[in-house]
Request: fold
Amino acid sequence: MQNNMAIERKTGFRNWLDKEGRAYAFLSMYALMFIIFIVVPVLVAFLLSFTTFDTIQLPKFNGLRNYIVLITQDDIFMKYVLPNTIKFAVIVGPGGYILSFLLAWTLTQLPKLPRTLFALILYSPSMTSGVAMTVVWKTLFSGDQTGYLNSLLLGMNIIAEPIQWLQSPQYLMSIMIIVTLWSSMGVGFLAMLAGILEINPEMYEAGSLDGISNRFQEIIYITIPSMKPQMLFGAVMAIVSTFQAGAIGVTLSGGNPTPQYAGQLIVNHVEDYGFLRYEMGYAAAASVVLLLMVLLFTRVSNRLFSSDY
Amino acid sequence: MRSKLISRFSGAHNRGINPKGFHVSQMKFYIFLLPLAVFMLLPMVFIFSNAFKPADELFAYPPRFFVISPTFDNFTELFSKMSNSGIPVSRYLFNSILITFVTIAASIIVSSTAAYALSKKRFKLKKVLFAINTVALMFVPIAVTIPRFLIIEKIGLMDTFLVHILPGLAMPVGLFLIKQFIDGIPDEVVEAAQVDGATDLWIYWRIILPMIVPAIATIAILTFQATWNNADISALYINSESLKTFAFYLSTLTSTTSTVAGQGIAAAASLIMFLPNLIIFIFLQSQVMSTMSHSGLKG
Reply:
C-alpha cells in the first residue's frame, strides 16, 4: 500500500515535470533575459530613486527627497524639460498615431501592388531610425548658406540670412517633431494596415443596409470597432517609440544640454544627471517619472480601445 | 447574378477596401499619397545621391540635391581609412555583421521557445506570465539606461562581445507577435503529435517552427533593425575599439564632420547603414504583413 503511494507520488512529480517543468524549461532562456534586462533595471530605478547615489559610495536612503526636489526646486525640469516632454509626446504620440491610421486606411483603398509600394515607402523611414539619418538631417538643416533648407529659402527670398536651424531654441523643437513624425510609420502602422485588410467585407455591406452613407461614418462605426485590438497594439507601439525617440534633440543639436534647453526631454535630463553629473539617485527619480508617463498614456489608450464592451 | 453584373459595370469591386483593380474613385487617394510619398522619400534619395557625390559637388554652392557625376571615391576612401585609434573601418563592419547575425539567431530561438510554451503548453503561471509580457510591451529601454548600466557592470558584461547580444534578446514585442501567431495553429495538431509519442522538442522543431515562418521573419527584421542600427551599446558598455560596431563608427563621424573628406565618408557610411534595412524588408514584407494580422492586443 505504502509502496503504491510512493509510486503514485513519484508519478505525480513525473507528471508535473512532464507538463509544467518542460513548459518552464522552454520559457527559461527568455525569462532569464527578461529578468536581467527589464525587470531588474525597472526595480533598481525605482529603488535608487529614493536614494542619493554617486556610484562611488553606497546609495543612501533619503526618502522622497529626489521627487520633492524634482518638482519644487529643479527649475530646468519644471520650466523646460516637463513642458517640452509633454508637448513632444502629445504631438508626436497621438499625432503620429492618427497619421498612421489615416495612411493605413488610405492604403487599403488601393489595389495590392500600389498599396505594397506605398507601404514600403512610408515604412522605410522608421527602419532607418538613428545614426544613419543624422548625416542627412545635419546637412539638410545645416546652419550656413550651403545647407539645403537655407539655400532654398534664400533663393526664394523668404529669408535674408541663413538660419542656424539646429542651434536656435526657436526651431529645434519643431524640427525634432517633424523628424520624429517622419519616421513614425512603424510596426504599429503595419499592424493597423493588416487589421483593416482583415475586416470581413460583409461588415460593410451590413453597414450600408443599416444606413451608413459615407466613408467617414464607415470608419467610425465599422472599421475602428472591428479592429480594436490592432488599434490598441498600434497605440502602445506609438507611445513606446515616441518616448524612445527622446534622444533626438541631443543628436540633432550635437550636445547635451540642448541650446537653451529648447529640445530637452526627460530622457536627456536623466542622461545629464546620470552620466554627466553622476547623481544616479536623482536621475533614477526622473526615469521613474518617465516610466509613469508611459504608463499613463497606455492607460488612456487602453480605455479607448478596450475590447471588453 | 444580376446585381453581380451591375456591380461589374459600375466597377463596384474596384471600390472600397482592398480593390482588385483601378477605379476613378481611387484618384483622390493617389493625389493625397503621391506628394506625401515623395516627401517621405526625399531624405532617403538624399542618402543615395550624397554617397556618390565627388567632393566638389558635396560642397557646391548653391547645393544640388542630385549627384551629377557619380563616383565610388567616398567608398574607396572609407575603406582605406583607419579610425583615430588605428582600427580599419572593415573591422567595425565585420563586428556589426557578426553581432547582427548572432543576435538574430539567438533572438529567434529564445523568443520562439518561450512563445511555444506560452501558447501550447499547460501550466499554472501561463496567463500571468503572458500578462507580464504584455505590460512589458510598453517598456521603454532608454528610460532605464542607468540601472542597466549598473547591472551590466555588476555581472561583468562590460567590454565583452556578449553585451552586444544579450540585452536585445529580451524583446517583449517579439515574444508577443510569435505567441499570437502560434495561437493560430490548432491545438489538435500538437495533441495528435503528442498521442504519437512526440517529445516537446520534436514538436517545437518539426511542427511549430515550420508553421511560423512569417512570424520568425518578422522577429528577424525587428531584431535586425534594433541591432544593426545600434550605436549606444558600443558607446556605453565597450571600451576596446576593436569590439565596437559600424553604427558607432558612423556616429563618431557625424559629430566631427567639418572636413570635406569627412562629409563624403559619412555619406558613404550612411548608405551602407541604410541599404541592408531596405533590402531585408523588401524581401520579407509579405511575411511581416501576415504576422501583423495576428498582432491584435486585447485591452
Remarks:
- Chain A touches chain B through 110 residues (CB under 8 Å).
- The mean pLDDT of chain A is 86.
